Amino acid sequence: MGNKIRVAIIDPHPIFRDGVICTLEAHADIEIVDQGATADDAIRIAAASRPDVIVVDTSVRGGGMNVIDTIARECSTVRTLVLTMTADQEQVCNALKWGARGYLLKGTSGSELVATVRTLSQGECYVSPSLAASLLMRPNSAPIEAVKKMDRLSDLTPREEQVLSILKEGRSNKEIGNKLDLSEKTIKHHLTRILQKLQVRNRVEAALLASDRAYSTVSYRDRRNRCGLSVR
């Protein structure tokens, strides 16, 4: 195949790394270009091989967050997918803040991993629905730095509001389209317009901003210190 998704795997545990490689290589549209075990390996591979997606465990020696930040700054075309055991909300938030495009837990299914790699390769972002839901429900959350002006939401059309409302549930473009009886291409168009109007960089930020609107204006001021997301 001519347009395979080029993937690199960085994980400190060889047995797990081999399992991920076997899972991804079983699909004809995915090619494993390199693998490693440390933060230095990740940065070297990202720079030398320029994979479409690099899968990284944040527990790698040398610091997973350093990997995410360095790749986001120096290899902007490489999308980082965090695949780890840690479901801590702060770590999820920090990973996205430093530039990760996706976040999965190691208990995920092979099919979800493959689907996420494909999603990231298309320039989109993905966070496990359970993790995304927990972030949206954080009681002490505050709006992202880049989207403090909540009145941007009033610029959305009724259809865009519908799309955003379903997006908050963690739905994919295809699922949103099915629910609204619209094509996936049309949903992508609406999402592009939504991101532009809200002045956010990705669907995760849009969902978080929409979620903030659901809280009262009084609680809004109590939530000003929320971590920022910069995943795209």
TrEMBL record:
SUPFAM superfamilies reported for this sequence: C-terminal effector domain of the bipartite response regulators (SSF46894), CheY-like (SSF52172)
UniProt keywords, alphabetically: DNA-binding, Phosphoprotein
Residue span, HTH luxR-type domain: 149-214
GO molecular function, one term: DNA binding
Modified residues (4-aspartylphosphate): D57
Disulfide bond recorded as keyword: no
InterPro entries, sorted: CheY-like_superfamily, EvgA-like, NreC/VraR/RcsB-like_REC, Sig_transdc_resp-reg_C-effctor, Sig_transdc_resp-reg_receiver, Tscrpt_reg_LuxR_C
Protein's name according to its UniProt entry: DNA-binding response regulator
Organism: Microvirga aerophila
